[in-house]
């Protein structure tokens, strides 16, 4: 093992390479550009391909081709680029192709800005593109977790034949933290892909990569198959972190950078005698609803902290299901909640204020 | 009485440009604004700026402006022009915006012979996002995403936008100019003026490609950039008029 | 221990790399560290800053919004960040570049003519490390050995000949800090 200081964006790239991804397609956009910069250098060193597409529309369609041919592949962008990719992502889902899509989120809507934000939660977990579907959505909160999650992302994608999205924000992408890297890299086992359209090579029946189901009965069957798969994923792949939750009277929650800020507030509140705890979803879909339901038994309120006008808070409310009040504190448009302001909110709520 | 020898064109606002030292976006803005002034068009011009270093051009041009999403300025301009056929509509786009992500939009705007004027700023690099390779990056040119220099096998070869668009019947005026010295600046202004005159005459789609510098991302001083442009870009992107209707010759 | 350092100046002054050096040194000492820059076009030709958190505990938030130490390399940065420093915190100013005074009374302030001293050492590029030397002596945030060790990692091999002059700069800074402490 060696310990190195790494930027989040570079960690996405190194994590992908260690997960056996050798084909990257992308279009430049701040604040994730260190990732294509890194892979432009690194991919040729490991015999891989880094290709700059002419747009995100093209990037995601190149991913469609590479994934359909049976290769571990990914693309990456930031908010506006993800909007452009939604059509392509829907096609990837329809054709049940595994791939990884990264969104290092920035302030929106519109051209917005390049500052860190979490305003694409809905887009990531509630569809984004057209049709009935879900994506597995991973939300790491540190540079080490980014490296680890890239492996998880490619494994889940292949195991379930689904696109997996990894979301971060400008802070996670730009910050440097130490990471432990294995000196010897053993490439992970990739499951066989007998469905890949990579040339007959003796096979009799051609493979077809396709998302056209012209007969409604067939398309409904596809949807039912997808949702049966989603049930399995929800049962087996839900991930979260709990912190000082056992006796918490107020439960803070959030993901990624917002969760780190909330965690620091938990400690500050505890040192002032307030029993605070934290739930941090690591998979945004599947959402760890049961953890909230359980916490609602002893906690008497929840506070969701986000870098948006309030998106994940809707899923927290569904999970708590009216048992306890769920409050919200957020900053948006590239502004970041300050720990002292969140702490003030916690104190106000504990004093009975709304 | 003192004679005014240097005056900001009316079609530019007082806002100070944010461009890096030695970048020629500022000169090109000025030429466009002077032409709009001289043709008396300030009142009826609508501009569309891109995503790229000139994303804030709406702050600089003292006319009605739109900000389009990346690459889509010709489509936005089409919408405006089809609603307001009497207005003068122009787009101002970089090479990433026009020749990469927006290739489809510019090709089809030209093919439809939209009566708009496009100012296409070719600096052979993506300026705003940190010096990545552009479709117009020269073979062998190093950028942050072509660290070994643009390679033919990996990245293909540059797009000569003017020559390509000139093959379309709908593109009625296509010219390539440069702004690396005073003589060329004068010629550039003439071409820009002609591109607006063609629109006013209702003749069809007009585009002026302007070779431009990017000292920051080329890693050169402003002076070296001018030299680099003259010695490397012009041989690859020859200057001249590729298409011109008989009416304005 | 939890120290949050904000280094602020113009782009091109080595603000970001000085911050990385500090973060590396913390990592070498097995502390928890995080480094975060201001980023994007706003730093081109304009101000650049970075925050470094060094702690014994896992770092919850990597954002440095209330620094324990502020290092100032240009005037706009003093205007912008003076008020954010925690009460009782430390401001180190490169007085070769900033002629302005700190107005707050509840802080420890040290003005270091770092460029002049660096010139005396024969290399103006080591000015930042003089300030870093002051920082490590006054706060004990990391050791001199760790910073010297991280120079080996941060500087490319062909620049390793510059390590001795950088070490000299660090030591010079530490000596200045000692003199300052004795005077108090
Ligand atoms: C959909 C989308 N993808 C990517 C970006 C990021 N982006 C902003 S400007 C730019 C390139 C601009 O280059 P160019 O058109 O050559 O203009 P210059 O900055 O050199 O003037 C890119 C890729 C974006 N804003 N939107």
From TrEMBL, chain A:
Keywords: Oxidoreductase. The keyword Oxidoreductase applies. It comes from the Bacteria. One of its GO terms (molecular function) is oxidoreductase activity. Pfam families: PFOR_II, POR_N. PANTHER family: SUBUNIT OF PYRUVATE:FLAVODOXIN OXIDOREDUCTASE, SUBUNIT OF PYRUVATE:FLAVODOXIN OXIDOREDUCTASE-RELATED. This is 2-oxoglutarate ferredoxin oxidoreductase subunit alpha. It comes from Desulforamulus aeronauticus DSM 10349.
UniProtKB/TrEMBL annotation, chain B:
Coiled coil: none annotated. Residues 132-152 are annotated as: Disordered. This is 2-oxoglutarate ferredoxin oxidoreductase subunit beta. One of its GO terms (molecular function) is thiamine pyrophosphate binding. Keywords: Oxidoreductase. It comes from the Bacteria. One of its GO terms (biological process) is cellular respiration. Residues 58-210 form the Thiamine pyrophosphate enzyme TPP-binding domain. Residues 134-147 have a biased composition (Polar residues). Pfam families: TPP_enzyme_C. InterPro entries: 2-oxoacid:Fd_oxidoreductase, THDP-binding, TPP_enzyme_TPP-bd. The keyword Oxidoreductase applies.
Automatic annotation (TrEMBL), chain C:
It comes from the Bacteria. Keywords: Oxidoreductase. Residues 11-175 form the Pyruvate/ketoisovalerate oxidoreductase catalytic domain. The keyword rRNA processing does not apply. Pfam families: POR. One of its GO terms (molecular function) is oxidoreductase activity, acting on the aldehyde or oxo group of donors, iron-sulfur protein as acceptor. InterPro entries: 2-oxoglutarate_synth_KorC (IPR052554), PorC_KorC (IPR011894), Pyrv/ketoisovalerate_OxRed_cat (IPR019752), Pyrv_flavodox_OxRed_cen (IPR002869). This is 2-oxoglutarate ferredoxin oxidoreductase subunit gamma.
């Amino acid at each position: 093992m060696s310990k190195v200081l790494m930027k989040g964006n570079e960690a996405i790239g190194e994590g992908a390479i260690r997960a056996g991804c050798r084909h990257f397609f992308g279009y430049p956009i701040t604040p994730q550009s260190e990732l294509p910069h890194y892979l432009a250098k690194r991919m040729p060193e490991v015999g891989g391909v880094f290709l700059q597409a002419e747009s995100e529309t093209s990037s995601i369609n190149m991913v469609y081709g590479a994934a359909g041919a049976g290769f571990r592949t990914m693309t990456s962008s930031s908010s506006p680029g993800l909007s452009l990719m939604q059509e392509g992502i829907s096609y990837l889902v329809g054709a049940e192709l595994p791939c990884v899509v990264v969104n290092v989120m920035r302030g929106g809507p519109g051209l917005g800005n390049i500052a860190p934000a979490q305003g694409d939660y809905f887009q990531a977990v509630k569809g984004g593109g057209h049709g009935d579907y879900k994506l597995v959505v991973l939300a790491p909160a540190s540079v080490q977790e980014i490296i680890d999650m890239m492996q998880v992302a490619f494994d889940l994608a292949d195991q379930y034949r689904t696109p997996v999205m990894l979301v971060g924000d400008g802070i996670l992408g730009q910050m440097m933290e130490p990471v432990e890297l294995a000196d010897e890299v053993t490439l992970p086992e990739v499951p066989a892909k007998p469905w890949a359209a990579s040339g007959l090579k003796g096979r009799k029946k051609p493979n077809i990569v396709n998302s056209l189901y012209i007969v409604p009965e067939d398309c409904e069957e596809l949807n039912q198959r997808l949702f049966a798969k989603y049930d399995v994923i929800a049962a087996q792949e839900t991930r979260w972190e709990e912190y000082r939750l056992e006796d918490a009277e107020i439960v803070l929650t959030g993901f990624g950078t917002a969760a780190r800020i909330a965690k620091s507030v938990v400690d500050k509140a505890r040192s002032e005698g307030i029993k605070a705890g934290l739930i941090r979803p690591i998979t945004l879909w599947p959402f760890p609803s049961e953890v909230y339901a359980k916490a609602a038994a002893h906690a008497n309120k929840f506070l969701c902290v986000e870098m948006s006008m309030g998106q994940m808070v809707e899923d927290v409310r569904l999970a708590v299901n009216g048992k306890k009040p769920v409050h919200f504190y957020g900053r948006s448009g590239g502004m970041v909640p300050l720990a002292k302001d969140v702490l003030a909110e916690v104190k106000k709520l504990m004093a009975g204020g709304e | 009485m003192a004679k005014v020898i240097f005056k900001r064109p009316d079609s530019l606002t007082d806002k100070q440009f944010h461009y890096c030292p030695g970048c020629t976006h500022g000169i090109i803005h000025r030429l466009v604004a002077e032409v709009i002034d001289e043709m008396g068009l300030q009142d009826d011009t609508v501009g569309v700026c891109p995503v790229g270093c000139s994303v804030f051009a709406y702050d600089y041009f003292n006319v009605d402006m739109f900000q389009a999403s990346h690459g889509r300025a010709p489509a936005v301009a089409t919408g405006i022009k089809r609603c307001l056929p009497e207005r003068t509509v122009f787009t101002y786009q970089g090479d990433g915006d026009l020749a990469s992500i927006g290739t489809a939009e510019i090709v089809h705007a030209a093919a439809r012979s939209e009566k708009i004027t496009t100012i296409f700023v070719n600096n052979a690099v993506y300026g705003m996002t940190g010096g990545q390779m552009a479709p117009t990056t020269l073979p062998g040119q190093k950028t942050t995403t072509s660290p070994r220099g643009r390679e033919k096998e990996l990245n293909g070869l540059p797009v000569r936008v003017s020559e390509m668009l000139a093959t379309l019947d709908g593109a009625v005026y296509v010219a390539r100019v440069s702004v690396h010295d005073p003589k060329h600046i004068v010629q550039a202004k003439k071409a820009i003026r002609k591109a607006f005159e063609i629109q006013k005459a209702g003749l069809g789609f007009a585009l002026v490609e302007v070779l431009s510098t990017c000292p920051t991302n080329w890693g050169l001083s402003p002076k070296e950039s001018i030299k680099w442009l003259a010695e490397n870009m012009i041989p690859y992107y020859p200057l001249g008029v590729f298409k011109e209707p008989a009416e304005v010759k | 221990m939890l120290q949050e350092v904000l280094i602020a100046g113009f782009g091109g002054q080595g603000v970001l790399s000085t911050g990385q050096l500090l973060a590396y040194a913390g990592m070498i000492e097995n502390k928890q560290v995080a480094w975060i820059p201001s980023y994007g076009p706003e730093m081109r030709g304009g101000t650049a800053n970075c925050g470094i958190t060094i702690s014994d505990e896992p770092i919850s938030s990597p954002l440095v919004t209330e620094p324990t130490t502020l290092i100032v390399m240009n005037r706009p940065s003093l205007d912008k960040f003076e008020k954010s420093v925690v009460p009782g915190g430390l401001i180190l100013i490169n007085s070769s570049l900033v002629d302005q005074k700190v107005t707050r009374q509840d802080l420890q302030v040290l003005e270091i003519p770092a460029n002049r001293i660096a010139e005396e050492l024969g290399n103006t590029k080591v000015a930042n490390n003089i300030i870093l030397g002051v920082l490590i002596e006054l706060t004990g945030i990391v050791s001199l050995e760790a910073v010297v060790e991280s120079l080996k990692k941060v500087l490319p091999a062909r620049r390793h000949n510059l390590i001795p002059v950088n070490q000299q700069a660090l030591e010079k800074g530490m000596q200045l800090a000692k003199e300052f402490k004795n005077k108090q």
